[in-house]
Amino acid sequence: MIKATFRLLSAALVMVFMALPGVIRAQDQNPMLQPLPVDTAVRIGKLPNGLTYYIRHNEYPKGQADFYIAQNVGSILEEDSQSGLAHFLEHMCFNGTTNFPGNLLRDWLESIGVKFGANLNAYTGVDETVYNISNVPVARESVQDSCLLILHDWANDLTLAPEEIDKERGVIHEEWRRSMQGQMRILEKILPDLYPDSKYGHRLPIGKMEIVDNFPYQALRDYYEKWYRPDQQAVIVVGDIDVDRIEGKIKEMFSSIEMPENAAERVYTPVPDHKGTLYGIGSDPEQKNLVAQMMFIFDPIPAEIKNTPAYFVNGYIQTMISSMINNRLNEISSRPDSPFAGAGVDFGGYFLSSKVKDAMSGSVASKNNDIIVPLQALYRELLRAQRGGFTQSEYDRARSEYLSSFERIYNNRATRQTGSFVSEYVKNFTDKEPLPSIETEWALAQGIANNVPLDLINRKMAEAVTPDNRAVMVLMPEAEGISLPTKEMIAEALAAVDAETIEAFVDEVNSEPLIPTAPVAGTVVATTENPQFGTIDWTLSNGAKVIVKPTKFKEDEIIFSAYAKGGYSDFSDDYTNTILFLSTALPARGLGSYTNTDLSKYTAGKQVALNCGFGNYSRSFSGSTTPKDIETLMELLYMNFKDIEFTADEFAALQTAYSGFLANQEKSPEYIFQKNILATLYDSPRAQMLNSEVINKASREQTIEIAHAMTANAADWTFVFVGNVNPETLKPLVEKYIASLPGDPKTAVKKVEKYNPVLFMKGGDKTDSFTAEMSTPQTQVAIIESGDMEYTPKNAMLASIAGQILTNRLIKTVREEMGAVYSISASGSLERSGLNPVSIVSQFPMKPEMKDEVLSFIKGQFKEMESNVTAAELNPAKEYMVKAFTANKELNGPWLSAIVGTLSNGVDTFNGNVDTVSSITPQDVMDFMKAINAQGNYRVLILDPAK
To answer: What is the pTM of this model?
Structure first.
């Protein structure tokens, strides 16, 4: 199939590949199969024992590095009696090693600002397990060496102490309890149907609890010794480090690890081809939606071909196919008579077996209690594309978007973040994904996109939909009015679509100008410079303000925000349903005569995003673009202020899709708990959970009225641009598209005069309990302490620090010692405006029988932190924040957030933040806790399983 594809490619494209720098051109060999040069900036090596390493110097973020170890080991390697051991072993890597016994590994990393969960983590897949220590401050070489020593211990020196294994059984059981909800229970039942006679049907990484609870200690040690070995491991270090030095240390530390004699062969379990269609059909009382997936399964490109132009051509074709089909599906979903709530198509691995089988997968969600009609509609669109192909205009837009996105990545190559490099190197090791330089990739992308004809795309689409090697998966709630279809019913429904005469797609494009009448430009009437943030500030003739901060952090990035005080709090209760639906509806808005679908076509090939958000007491827009596309952003911004619109059909389609989608979610324990939390803590109907009844009562006319009211006076607003923006280029655009907006400084909202208490959370010291039916019993808990506090930089940091210290205490006791939860945390925050703006929140699921013990402990910690906070607890939080604050100085996003935040209440928390956090003492934290505890607003909300 691959060779047939390449015979159709033009000679021009072949010449592009022949001209790529560094390509080794073997005589008489197809240039499409010539190996591509590996990026010379990454050093790749292999030790004599078989361990692979990747090292790269990168200074974004400066002074930090990531340390990873990837293992080509996962749950597929387990025997039936070992189900869950691969995942269990991952947990044990954080519970003691030879050089870091007990909790020393986590404690030491926390002491240098590396936080468990955020920077220290791991995941176990079916075919791989990957561990990471990320965003490590590496100014000291001893820190680099210690992180490498941790990777070494994970590779070969776990202690696997019996007492630690026994403690971790409870933690993993709670992880299973949390994950084994509706969808996961269905998957566990139907996987054998999707993988007949294959281990993939029985190897979910979480495993079987009867094995997790009872396996002998030696079983875990045996699995570790068998599979954690050098030939299946790769060490990856990327960041602000000396490559030569790190390579030397890797050789020094890891070369002594012995490769076992007569090591078991690492076999990638094959998934056999099959005739016809496999069906996995299941239901569960806690499944939230009716969803289906149709998969067309095929063999992946062989590893030896991945590092060739052929692989990139194949990927491009798949990207074009999925992009064009998804645009069609999105257009259908915007109609009130759409047969589905949403649908999409993508190419990737076949479910759990991504290493050995690929698939074109189409997914669809129902908006009512039927899944047959949505599945038929999805299949019909796949057949429409297969039989009738794509149009040239569709392809032009998809290709333009592809090139524009790639160009942005290329232009930002000099400031690429470390994490993106690490991800590529992990995939190279686990999946043999190629590693050409960005320069080579960009040349490839242009050559491919400009030379692959539409005819080839259509031929590949015609081959993609097949009668064999197919699979259909259906997941449904168990509820009144919903019937589970049989595989015979689905087969008959799909056969009926096969028999249809399906007309070719007609691409309709709005050819009217987005802005029907050219704006009458205003002027900049005053210019000042603000040394606080290094900005240029303009006052416009209509009263609007503009703040510009030019930076060079990213060559091809401009980010934007607009902020105004005041919101819809004064709208009457008649608008309640519309206000509750507003944030859901606004992303689907149109502008003037352009529907949301029209706008997607209009912006194809332009790197532009613009979002809006309206609240009770504030309004905002946020967006991003590139220097090349900034005028398109300004056009969209202008029309968002002039004419946000929804057609009657668009709004009805939104209501139908979301109300149907939510109807079954409303029966889930998670929804019930959140609904009860809001109903208990807030008196206002505007602060309640969105539900299908509310959606159906929302008004299109009111939505448009609110949107227009929020944008009626440009003098309310301040517009902020941060990034690679030239003020001289921006100024005429500002005058044309912002200064031209209607604005009246005399009536502008400058401050919020009064807050309505009913719109804010109630206080008090109280516990409220609820119940819900659950198939897997677990108790859900939300603890919220709130209060009043002056907004200062120090108080905002103290709120965050208090949450971090409490989190560590909860992890060590509730998770590690009690084994009552899988994951638990607390967060502290101080809002810039509103009533009772300070809060500490902890929400988590847990083992029901330990509820009283856990709640008593947590309440005791809130009290204890009034008088007992140590420097040993405080310093890791400060280190973490200093690390983040330092890195943020080189990023556009934090600068934008700081400027906009200061607009809201005049307090600058950005400049001088390192000095502020460094000055905080344990006594400051204790005083903070005294102040919030003294206000008596400690609320506990509990959802128990119904008996």
So the answer is: 0.94
